[in-house]
Known about the structure:
By secondary structure, this protein is mostly beta strands. It has helices spanning 69-72, 145-151, 156-160; strands spanning 15-22, 25-30, 34-39, 53-59, 62-68, 85-90, 95-100, 102-109, 114-115, 129-135, 138-143. Helices cover 10% and strands 43% of the residues. The model is unreliable at 1-8 (pLDDT under 50).
Amino acid sequence: MFEMTAKSNKVASEGRYLSFQLGHEIFAVEIQCVSEIIGMDKITALPDTETYVKGVINLRGNIIPIMDLRLKLHLIETQYSKQTCIIIVDTSTNKVGIIVDAVQDVLDFNCKQIDLTPEICSVSNLGIVTGIGKIQEKNVILVDMFAILASAKINFDKLRA
C-alpha cells in the first residue's frame, strides 16, 4: 500500500497551483508535487485493482501506476478525449500518474483568495479537499495530492517485483 499518512484537516496554503479540469469543475494541486504532464499513453490494465486504478505505463523505463482521478473522487466516468492527459506526481518515494480531463494553467493564490472547505464535502473528511480558491470569479477546488495517494490502494512493492 502507499506508505504515507494523510495530513488530517490540512488547509490549503498560498502558493502556486497547477489547475486542471474534471467535468465542469476546476481543481488544482500544489505545483511542487507535479513532476511532468504527458498525453494519454497505452495503459496496461492490472487484474484485481480498484476501479480508479487504470493500470500502469512504462515511462522511460519506469513503471508508473495510473489512477483516474475522476473515479477516485466518485465522479461519473467519461470517455477520454484529445485533451485528456496524465499528471505525473512525485511523492519523493514513488511516482504516480493521475488522469485528468484537461490541464488548465498555473495559478498563484494568496491567503485572501482561499476559503475553508465546507463541512458538507465528504472527501474533506479524508483531507483530500483542502480549500476553495477564488480567482476571477471562479471557484477552484484545491486538493492535497498526498492525501489522495495515501487513501489509494496501490501496492508499489508488487509493481516493482
